[in-house]
């Protein structure tokens, strides 16, 4: 009996060893996926530090012989990047803030507020989620142009204020919240605004951070609508203004300059992701482990 007791812990240990031995193979798809994403970005960043001869060549140049920020200086001379950055910041900040607030309040209303035709409204949100934004491009332009919104901030922001994805994601998350929390607050006399700001929003921060990141990236990288609604360089956003580098000079020797401009467009999004990374991971894994 004593021997069996002493031998019993060997089984979990052997299982752990087998798991530890098999775990590295599971990282192979993850490493390949990360490489597909990271290598082009890394190549773009390195290419912005190269000379034109090192970029436009038949031989592979992995590392620039003399790294230089001359491409960034040339890009800033060809295009007014401070103005483009300001336009993108205003459009992204205001548009994302309004979209997040609307998504939170809409999802709260769909879950915790009783009103008629709630299911029909949610079905309409799902339909809007399936319809591409390009389908409404012409009606939006006709409507905004008739109101005088061409080359204006509100003309760029207004058509994209509704976010079906954010409303859907937050609604699904709100459905998982314990109803006892809101019932206790209601018994204490808390209204909908208090319940939303004091209970729902604090416990839903990871999911809200995920919606915020998707919204910020979408607003920052939006290209088609700002391209259609603006025809002045003073009102262009960064993705639209980046095409000015190609339109200004189509010489292949300016590829480092175009890469430098692309780095300036991507860098703010990477910073936002680094800031919200923990919240995003918590939001994606929430409920996966109990």
Automatic annotation (TrEMBL):
PROSITE patterns: ABC_TM1 (PS50928)
One GO CC annotation: plasma membrane
SUPFAM superfamilies (UniProt xref): MetI-like (SSF161098)
Keyword Transferase: no
Membrane topology: Multi-pass membrane protein
GO biological process, one term: transmembrane transport
Coiled-coil stretches noted in the UniProt entry, renumbered to this chain: none
ABC transmembrane type-1 domain sequence ranges: 85-276
Pfam families: BPD_transp_1
InterPro entries, sorted: MetI-like, MetI-like_sf
Transmembrane segments: 25-46, 89-113, 120-141, 153-170, 199-218, 254-276
The entry's keywords: Cell membrane, Membrane, Transmembrane, Transmembrane helix, Transport
Keyword Transmembrane annotated: yes
Family: Belongs to the binding-protein-dependent transport system permease family.
The protein's name: Glycerol-3-phosphate ABC transporter permease
Organism: Microlunatus endophyticus
